[in-house]
Write a sequence for this structure.
């Protein structure tokens, strides 16, 4: 079976597993040459799922997973042979190698097959098995942020495959989302304590975020004791700000360490998850989120979007032409942090950054939002110290204006002479008909000759 696995990885030699083909080269085993379309997959499935779990079973399942990856029709063969239900039943055993292989196989079945996952969840406890597996992975993490010393790389690999499967099931079968609510607490714990890679938006962090993204956070809120947000797995009493702090920390690292070309796809789920968490947060946690993501007094020492803080970076990304999806998502997040109030929105980020979003969403901006009618000095909420266009404090803006010394009479004469010469040269070219303003002033009697 190990030899079949070696041939099954290479498209040049894997063909006999999933299609009828005669192969002569002596480098290919006789066993491979005898396999036909259904016979190849069915033989591997019998070794993989019709016998007890073990080394032979795992090797056969690796062959099946490789075949499904290289040849999509083999996925439907697996389903037609009835092995999807056996895979769901096998997952109940809790074996880590089984988890890695079976979750990968079931994940591949979510694409281009006619399988219905509802019976797998309702009749074969697939959701319960996956909830138990995420709980198992969660127990390996604590505030130390590291797994036990005896943990093997297969642990993270199996967890990733389980999370990918959870995401696809909840994406393609929204009615099954409530069955995965028990995983919320486990996923939050893993998110809080798993080491962040560099850059952060890669496996396994991205799969943790994706799995959380589809879960019903509102349901979790309503089913907890006394319906208090603080008792939610998202906002535990002992550390309610943990999830918000962690998500914003990941976002800050992401915008610093990922190339901008990657962010439109990579950071979109993270930004969306922040919006969903904010939606169900308590007033205190909403205030905490605004504190972390909106410009503060230090940011207003210069025009907003000019610094290196998280809020400044987000504002710059929100109007980047290379990030159409993420830019829109960031603007929506900032609008929600402003209570969806155009006045607060402009006050928080400046009209320069707010105008495009408000215009594209057909949201009218009151004249007070731009300071019109009062010389631009009395903007929203009576904050006359803020330039409503740039978001910078007027006092800081005035400090940055150059303080040029008054020109002496001699310097003024030299400057006038220089301009006279430049205009005479321009007129001599014949390209334009321009009258020297110095000569015009003389002709109009505005010059007086002194002794």
């Amino acid at each position: 079976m190990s030899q079949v696995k070696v041939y099954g990885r290479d498209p040049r030699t894997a063909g006999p597993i999933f299609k009828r083909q005669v192969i002569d080269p002596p480098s290919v085993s006789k066993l491979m040459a005898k396999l036909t379309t259904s016979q190849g997959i069915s033989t591997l499935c019998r070794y993989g799922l019709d016998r007890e779990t073990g080394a032979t079973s795992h090797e056969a399942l690796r062959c099946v997973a490789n075949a499904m990856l290289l040849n999509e029709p083999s996925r439907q063969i697996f389903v037609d042979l009835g092995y999807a239900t056996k895979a769901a039943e096998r997952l109940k055993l809790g074996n880590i190698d089984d988890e890695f292989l079976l979750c990968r196989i079931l994940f591949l079945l979510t694409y281009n097959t006619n399988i219905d996952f509802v019976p797998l969840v309702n009749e074969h406890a697939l959701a319960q098995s996956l909830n138990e597996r995420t709980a198992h992975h969660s127990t390996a993490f604590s505030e130390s942020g590291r797994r036990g010393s005896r943990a093997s790389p297969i642990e993270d690999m199996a967890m990733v495959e389980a999370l990918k499967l959870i995401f696809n099931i909840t994406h393609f079968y929204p009615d099954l989302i409530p069955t995965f609510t028990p995983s919320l607490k486990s996923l939050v714990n893993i998110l809080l304590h798993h080491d962040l890679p560099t850059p952060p938006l890669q496996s396994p962090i991205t799969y943790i975020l994706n799995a959380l993204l589809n879960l019903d956070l509102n349901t979790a809120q309503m089913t907890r004791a006394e319906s208090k947000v603080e008792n939610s797995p998202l906002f535990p009493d002992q550390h309610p700000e943990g999830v918000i702090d962690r998500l914003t920390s990941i976002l800050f690292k992401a915008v610093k360490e990922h190339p901008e070309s990657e962010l439109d796809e990579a950071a979109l789920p993270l930004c969306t998850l922040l919006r969903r968490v904010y939606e169900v947060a308590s007033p205190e946690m909403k205030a905490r989120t605004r504190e972390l993501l909106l410009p503060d007094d230090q940011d207003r020492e210069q025009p907003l979007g000019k610094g290196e803080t998280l809020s400044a970076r987000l504002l710059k990304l929100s109007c980047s032409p290379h990030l159409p999806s993420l830019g829109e998502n960031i603007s929506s997040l900032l609008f929600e942090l402003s209570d969806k109030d155009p006045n607060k929105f402009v006050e928080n980020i400046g009209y320069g950054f707010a105008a495009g979003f408000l215009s594209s969403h057909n949201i009218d901006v009151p004249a007070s939002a731009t300071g019109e009618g009062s010389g631009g000095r009395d903007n929203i909420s009576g904050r006359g110290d803020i330039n409503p266009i740039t978001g910078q404090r007027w006092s800081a803006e005035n400090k940055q204006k150059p303080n040029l010394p008054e020109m002496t009479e001699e310097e003024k004469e030299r400057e006038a002479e220089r301009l006279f010469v430049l205009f005479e040269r321009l007129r001599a070219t014949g390209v334009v008909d321009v009258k020297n303003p110095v000569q015009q002033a003389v002709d109009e009697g505005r010059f007086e000759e002194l002794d």
About this structure: Residues 371 and 379 are 5 Å apart (CA to CA). Residues 420-451 form one domain.
